[in-house]
Amino acid sequence: MSAARPLTTLRALAALAALPLLLTACGYGSDAAEDDKRTEVAADAEKLSAEEVRIGYFPNLTHATALVGVQEGLFQKELGGTRIKTSTFNAGPSEIEALNAGSIDIGWIGPSPAINGYAKSNGRNLRIIGGSASGGVKLVVNPDKIKTLDDVKGKRIATPQHGNTQDVAFLNWIADRGWKVDAQSGAGDVSVVRTDNKVTPDAYASGSIDGAWVPEPTASKLVTEGAKVLLDEADLWPDKKFVITNIIVSQSFLKEHPDVVEAVLRGSVKTNEWINANPEKAKASANAALEELSGKALPADVIDPAWKSVTFLDDPLAATLDTEAEHAVKAGLLERPDLTGIYDLTLLNKVLKAEGKEEVDDAGLGAE
């Protein structure tokens, strides 16, 4: 054992010991890093109906549309004199609470928090107005302990948070294999260990977990620790596509400032187009944004494989969101919600049509 390994182990054990406090701190209304970053606008730029639009997102590669769009000024170009203010989050519930409280207006977020936020407000507080990304989630494991999918039984596998998108997906996969796990405690035929993504690599290095069902770049970070990819979640979905990041807006902001929402969506569409046309430049831009937010860029052996596994697109893949809601219900994490009205794709389709792109479908879950 190297001299560095005991220190790594101690850090991991300390982090895991603090995990209950960490997860408590990640509750509604917490775990937000208000960047207070406002983009520069020209003095003579014409404002839209709002002075400012407050945008929230995660410092994750699955939120690269927001990272790159802000970094490259593609959103600001569409917004003219309406200034952007950004806030970053590490947990979906805190971003939903910020939206509900009026601290942000528009956010990039995973499907499970969007479903939960819509259901808990009885459909009053948010709408999904666009898609952003698909994929970028993997089951990575210790190859010395787990060589086949059947070997996952009896092992300790991490997910990022109780009831989050990856937690729901893993619980559904477990159920499909006929294994039993208590959704609340994580105990059963597989031990589901809810572990913050920032803690997971050290937990893996210490042997506290045997693998993880996690988004990028955490999955690729674990690979650098010796883990192997056992399953790419995309392989479980038709056409290998499933929603991992949506764009949401508060219904009050959508009603009061549709021109601002349209401008942000136009910026998102143009950002995704730029990302797909310039993948290497876009990867570097996203990494620069992550370095600005965290103080450290991702190394090539992490960002290169992570970037390749995420698909950036405008389609919210509404049918897969409905399926993910069914998975949460089956896992016992959610009562069957009425998702009718969760989507309003009117402005997105207006933008897509103007850009000569194919319009997208809400799978029958659109607002009337």
Major β-sheet annotation: 7 strands, mixed
**Structural class of the secondary structure composition?**
alpha/beta
Estimate the helix proportion, in percent: 40-55%
Major sheet: order of its strands?
Answer: 1-3-2-4-11-5-12
| Approximate shape | globular
Poorly predicted sequence stretches spanning 5 or more consecutive residues: 1-30
Provide mean pLDDT, rounded.
89
> What is the first-to-last residue Cα distance?
63 Å
How many H/I helical runs?
Answer: 15
What does the radius of gyration come to?
20 Å
Order of helices and strands: HHEEHHEHEHEEEHEHEHEEHHHHEHH
Description of the structure:
The protein has helices at 4-17, 19-25, 64-71, 74-79, 92-101, 111-120, 165-176, 200-206, 218-224, 251-256, 258-277, 279-294, 300-308, 318-331, 346-354; strands spanning 32-38, 52-57, 83-89, 106-109, 126-135, 137-141, 156-159, 191-194, 211-215, 228-232, 243-250, 310-312. With 368 residues, the chain is an alpha/beta fold. A 7-stranded mixed sheet has the order 1-3-2-4-11-5-12, sandwiched between helices. The chain has a 5-stranded mixed sheet with strand order 8-7-9-6-10, sandwiched between helices. The longest helix has 20 residues, at 258-277. It is globular, with a radius of gyration of 20 Å.
